[in-house]
Design goal:
The protein is α/β, with parallel strands linked by helices and 396 residues long. Helix content is 33%, strand content 20%.
Length: 396
């Protein structure tokens, strides 16, 4: 448990972001499938989700050499031969689980996949059923489960209405020896910036991507990665800096933001002070800090977040609960949040529950810098940002 006392900030704050886990996990998956060496460069300390992915690709036999601000990856002839270690621990990472499940399905060797208590409560039926339809044997839809391939990547249907991760994992991790692998996308897609990021990375590695209506067809004559890959910062944590700025009335300067266009329109939406309806269809990870930001500003509604129920926690329910714990009015109406404005957090009477959800924990700690409070399991923030607690404690 972390005890945070109320702070009074009078000047601007230098605030750094960690490396992007979305970019880095995808590049680690891609680099694993090429026997050439790839250098992945980044600024800051990778979060535990990235470490979970690193640990998993090493299980496949991939070599990872760590240096300061860079990792050198030497992949394998993927899907051929034996797996070095059949016991895969994906930690708290749903992204890692989706990617590793597809990667493991390329092998005949049966593997065991597991994770922490939060991961064990998550539903992976979408990617698992897709792989089963192509020949995989998967024992259940929540970890721990067993996976046995190899699958034949020919044609598959994926519902993109709940998450973009199953689609992304198929695009990056399919067997590159398969030709004309067609993915039929059903449902109204969410988190589209993430699937576009995946497609762009696949193209950089030589994958030929053809889109036709709701179908994506993949071919790969030669899978070759760039020799050097540069990872941007974790832009999905930008709303936390906005929340801190709103709470304390000072600027939080992010000096290592870079010039990535990833989630650019979503970031601009959060920046807009008078915005009263936030459609988070493509950035549901913003929901918790965004709700707190609206509460401090003029209030409003958050829509387009049905898929936030399937994250590390049910983020619709737990976001409303978090704000109420801090004395801020927030109501659930169907699948949207309705938030009253001109509110400021009050010190919670009891330690704040965070449900092994790093974004709930980060928002709780940010709110507590104004009101004071005790936050349970604050270390879960290390999933994305290993230095977050230190940065919070050094604000004063």
């Amino acid at each position: 448990m972390l005890i945070i006392n109320p702070l009074k900030l009078t000047k601007s704050v230098e605030w750094d972001l960690p490396p992007s886990k979305s970019h880095m996990i995808r590049w680690l998956a891609a680099a694993s499938q090429s026997e050439q060496e790839t250098i992945i460069k980044f600024n800051g300390e990778p979060g535990k989700d990235i470490i979970s992915m690193k640990r998993c690709i090493e299980n496949f036999g991939v070599e990872v050499t760590e240096s300061e601000n860079s990792w050198t990856i030497k992949g394998i002839n993927f899907g051929r031969g034996d797996i070095k270690n059949i016991n895969f621990n994906c930690g708290n990472s749903g992204t890692t689980t989706n990617f590793v499940t597809v990667m493991a399905s390329c092998f005949e060797t049966e593997i065991n996949l597991d994770g922490d208590d939060s991961l064990r409560n998550r539903d992976f039926s979408e990617i698992n059923n897709a792989l089963r339809s192509m020949g995989a044997i998967i024992s259940s839809d929540a970890p721990p489960f067993k996976i046995k391939g190899p699958v034949k990547f020919d044609k598959v249907s994926i519902n993109t209405q709940k998450s973009s991760q199953p689609l992304s994992s198929l695009i990056i991790a399919f067997d590159k020896n398969c030709k004309n692998f067609t993915i039929e996308c059903t449902g109204k897609p969410v988190s589209r910036d993430y699937s576009e990021l995946t497609i762009n990375i696949a193209k950089e590695c030589g994958v030929i991507v053809r889109k036709n209506d709701n179908n994506i067809t993949l071919n790969c004559n030669k899978f070759i990665l760039p020799k050097i890959v540069k990872i941007p910062q974790e832009i999905s944590l930008f709303p936390i800096s906005v929340l801190l700025s709103e709470l304390h009335g000072v600027e939080f300067k992010i000096n290592n933001l870079g010039d990535s266009d990833f989630l650019k329109s979503s970031i601009e939406m959060i920046r807009t002070i008078d915005k009263e309806v936030l459609n988070l269809r493509d950035c549901s990870d913003f929901i918790t800090p965004a709700a707190a930001i609206l509460a401090i500003r003029k209030g409003g509604k958050i829509i387009g977040v049905k898929h936030a129920k399937g994250k590390e926690s049910d983020r619709i329910e737990k976001t409303a609960e978090l704000l109420k714990v801090f004395g801020m009015d927030c109501e659930i109406e169907g699948e949207k949040l309705v938030i009253q404005g001109n509110q400021l957090p009050k010190r919670p009477e009891k330690p704040v529950k965070t449900y092994l959800d790093h974004r709930i924990a980060m928002t709780a700690m940010a709110l507590a810098t104004y009101s004071g409070g005790e936050v349970n399991n604050p270390e879960i923030s290390e999933i994305t940002d290993p230095s977050f607690i230190e940065k919070i404690l050094h604000l004063g």
